[in-house]
Design a protein that fits this description.
Keywords: Methyltransferase, Transferase. It holds the Pfam family Methyltransf_31. This is Methyltransferase domain-containing protein. Helix content is about 40%, strand content about 25%. It has ten helices and seven strands. A seven-stranded mixed sheet has the order 3-2-1-4-5-7-6, with helices on both faces. α2 runs parallel beside α3 and α6 runs antiparallel to α10.
Length: about 280
């Protein structure tokens, strides 16, 4: 599959998930978004870009941090995400925030447009992450900050459940080939940022526990985000068996009230344009 085809497939997944994205009553994207904004050190009056804004897990905390004297712009390549988020902004009365359809791979803004660029759990989904980072570096003002979150560790029960679901994919369904992870660890992240003319300021991990009423609630959550990319390829006649296998894999995450609790760790990197790097 070409990079363009992968990008189109990803947009389709999030377009279909938009109505329920981050709306299933699970504490996940919200806490991660708020922590990303906190680590970025957003200040009143800042001009901020949120790439791959989704339904606003980063966008709304950024708007609170800049206050009405600032300006926050969110971009997403899925038109439905943009439409739903624009309506949420309208209802909230946030006139210093706008959202538009644009590509997180190469946002269409002049160099030096922003004090901060925020990328919450999105850069690793892009066809060419390092190229995207170079673009972000050019869009930042000289003392600007880029704050990026990537996954650090998934709950072992979640990993086992995903493997159980994947075992039910059709035999002819292509599996993504293993690739080098430019965000695998602190050393790799620092090198990745350096290639993009960015100097790392801090790297830290942040952990969230997400609770689910039962396996059905977990499956509802899975359909509401990127997990849909896997689920939609399991043919209907295999889904009950797939869910049963996933439920067995999730048993170690069972809590006393009968629900499930899964812990996810992300890694937040804050970087700034390197002195002397080209501005365009």
């Amino acid at each position: 599959m070409t990079d363009r085809a992968r990008s189109n497939a990803a947009v389709e997944v999030f377009e279909q998930a938009a109505s329920s994205y981050d709306r299933t009553g699970v504490s996940f994207f919200g806490p991660f978004g708020a922590e990303l904004v906190r680590c970025a050190g957003i200040r009143p009056g800042d001009r901020v870009l949120d790439v791959g804004c989704g339904r606003g897990a980063v966008l709304f905390p950024a708007a609170d941090a800049t206050g009405p004297t600032g300006r926050v712009t969110g971009i997403d390549l899925a038109p439905a995400m943009v439409s739903f988020t624009a309506e949420d902004l309208r209802r909230a009365g946030l006139t210093h925030v706008d959202v538009r359809v644009d590509d997180a791979q190469q946002p269409d803004f002049p160099p030096g447009s922003f004090d901060a660029i925020l990328a919450g759990l999105v850069v690793f989904l892009l066809p060419e992450p390092q190229q995207a980072l170079r673009t972000y570096a050019r869009l930042l003002r000289p003392a600007g900050r880029l704050a990026v979150s990537t996954f650090a560790a998934q709950d072992p029960a979640f990993v086992a459940a995903m493997d159980a679901l994947a075992a039910h994919l059709p035999a002819d369904q292509p599996r993504p080939a293993p690739a080098a992870d430019p965000f695998a660890d602190e050393r790799t992240i620092t090198a990745t940022m350096a290639v993009a003319d960015l100097a790392v300021i801090t790297i830290r991990d942040y952990q969230v526990e997400s609770k689910f009423r039962d396996v059905g609630h977990w499956m509802e959550w899975m359909w509401s985000h990127g997990g849909r990319a896997l689920l939609r390829h399991i043919v209907p006649e295999r889904r009950d068996a797939a869910i049963a296998d996933a439920a067995r894999a999730l048993e170690p995450a069972r809590v006393p009230d009968g629900g499930l609790a899964l812990t996810t760790a992300i890694r937040i990197t804050v970087a700034t344009p390197r002195a002397g790097a080209p501005a365009s």
